[in-house]
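>> Question from a student workshop board

For tomorrow's exercise we were told to take the sequence and the ligand below, predict the bound structure, and bring the output to class. My setup keeps failing. Could a helper post the expected result so I can at least see what it should look like? The ligand is adenosine-5'-triphosphate.
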Amino acid sequence: MSKIAILSPIDEIIPVAKEACRKTGENFLVRKVNFDEAIATAKRLVKSGTEIIISRGTLGLKIIESNLDIPVVQIPITGYDLLRTIVEAQKLGDKIGIADTAVILEGVEAIESALGITIEKYVIQSVEEVEKAVHSLVDKNIDVLIGKSVFIKNVPNPNVKTVVLSSGVESVIQAIQEAKSLLEVRHTEEQRTKQLQAILDFIADGVIAVDEKGIITVCNPSARRILNIPYERVIGKRIDDILLNSRMGKVITTGKEELNRIQDENGVKIITNRIPILHENKVFGAVCTFQELQKLQQQEQEIRKKLLHRGHVTKYDLENIVGKSRSYQNAIEKVKKYSQVDSTVLLTGETGVGKEVFAHLIHSLSKRADGPFVAVNCAAIPKNLLESELFGYVDGAFTGARKGGKTGLFELAHQGTIFLDEIGELAESVQAQLLRVLQEGEVMRIGDERVIPINIRVIAASNRDFEDMVEDGKFRADLYYRLNILDILIPPLRQRKEDLPLLCSHFIGELEQSIHKNITGFDSEAMEVLQSYHWPGNIRQLRNIVERSMILSHGEVINKETVLLAGGKDFLQLKTKRQEQINEEKQDNGKLQEYEREYILDVLNQVNGNKTEAAKILGIGRTTLWRKINN
Ligand SMILES: Nc1ncnc2c1ncn2[C@@H]1O[C@H](COP(=O)(O)OP(=O)(O)OP(=O)(O)O)[C@@H](O)[C@H]1O
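>> Workshop helper replied:
Here is what the output should look like for this input. Compare the format with yours to find the bug.
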């Protein structure tokens, strides 16, 4: 079926239209239709694939008014058509009359002055005026009447000749060209619409657009999915009947965009951008795009996880945590219990006792185990950077801020655990913000006004005495109580020395591979040295010394000398102590010898100096007696 069809109510146009098609090399459908069947015919054509109709005058108008939703191109009456008809009329008589619309008659005036003739004119306002117009012109004694076919049908005076004013081939060609370029535009537009539709159908973001009255004109599949919109048809419905907090009406009235807003819609938290649709400074609608907050956070975490080499994952589980002592096992029992709830935990203990290990353990035993584990050492990050590291910032939040902003560590820990080590080092301003995170479950990036809800578990640790810090006003009391809901005190190594052998063999096993040495353990003297030390650096220090001993050892079993060497200056005190002990022993030995000598001399006295007799009494040889007296 031809994409363009030419429909005419009058016979004269048909051959002209066919000629125009021939000249333009087109094979369009050309058909004569009566006024009554015009719309039905046009409908049939549209159904079978016609995209543009070319028609004339009143018939064209009728098709346009029928709301068929396809363009109708009118065949014009051009200046050539007028000139040709007037020249023809001149051949039939001197006095010419014409009835038509004001536009056509303006063209007539131009021809009158060019040809130096006068023509009687009647301006038609509507089709109903046909009879009146014809009568009025005939009454003016005209010889020839020019008009469209309806005008010249019933002329009351048979002496008046008639000439039909009709479009010529050029006019139809002009209409054909117009229809063709319209078709091209239509196809380009259709392609664009399809492209746009494909984008809307496949993007993960939700998109909803409304007109200036708040009626939905676009709602893509992601929007329905994200917001759980149950309705089959939302196009044409009022946005406020579908969404409670859309704020689209506000955007339309103010004409102001609202970017990066977090809102709750149908029980789903979304992050939205709403913008007005403006044309020549007039708002004629609004569009909003949105994403599911939770998904966005997950994606952000995934990306960050991939980007960061270390990855926010736990490294420890119950299997690689060593310690059988009662006090340590009590602490482990607490870990097991506390991991089952979501409350904040405060870990206290000296440096190196394994606070971070415990935090890992709590996370990996909890229901958040599959979520991120983010460890932050508050003392290791410079004070002026800590706030932005924890809370993140938006683009341009401060001088030096990274382009595009930065996600804070709290956000990264969403659905997981954040471990705040050395929490006692937090500046007061950050303490206040942390309190807000704990109380409200939301963070605000620096330079941003939107709040981001987060679901995290906080584990804090410190090796400082909190109660003292609170008393000295260095740590907020309210924050301390918020952190200290569940507490675990990890005992220092010196209080559980029975764990030393276990820990040593655990570390030997762990380090063997990297050191490439076959070490079976420590001998008893070496272990005695380890047992006698007070371990201020706790397990971390022990691990270091085990490692050093393994490297320094000449044999498979590590001996006392190697351990003392490995202990270096840490064990210096130990060596000094040993020396003192030896000295003491030496001193004691000296005293003993003195007593012995006195005793031997006493015995000698009693036997009047007889050495053989004295040696006999003392149970020693004469030479030994002699040496002991002379020593
Ligand atoms: N029970 C354990 N079993 C095996 N290794 C342990 C154990 N506890 C701690 N460690 C090891 O001891 C070292 C120190 O542990 P961790 O960093 O957790 O201590 P910390 O108390 O957090 O120290 P700090 O207060 O200095 O931050 C780590 O290398 C860890 O692997």
